[in-house]
Design a protein that fits this description.
Radius of gyration: 17 Å
Shape: flat
Strand content: under 5%
Helix content: over 70%
Oligomer: single chain
Largest sheet: none
Distance between the termini: 37 Å
Amino acid sequence: MALIELMDLAFSIDNVFAVVAFTDNLILICLGVFIGILAMRLVAQAFVLLMGKYPFLETAAFIVIGILGLKLLLSLFEHYLPQHPFSHFLASETADVGLTILTVAVFAVPLLTSWLFGVPYRQGSR
């Protein structure tokens, strides 16, 4: 029981970093952490089963974490060089939409190709 609570705490802290990568709005940060905790409680088992059936989703999750880490690193560029044109692009809605599409595509494209063409292989399909 204590290990599960410790894991929830670790993921809560991780959620704060992930949400801060997307916004500075305190309400959205709190909402993001709340949704993350709720998701861990309610749908964790479904995700475990899904990742058991489609093991490549674990790699997709690591890629998304890398993308969020890159976004956090680039926020340093925005912070220290706010007048630079690249900083203006990073703060734009276009960059946010592009990052959202990229994040969804990292999960959706392998799933779709697995369903339609059998590549990447899902567990037990070989």
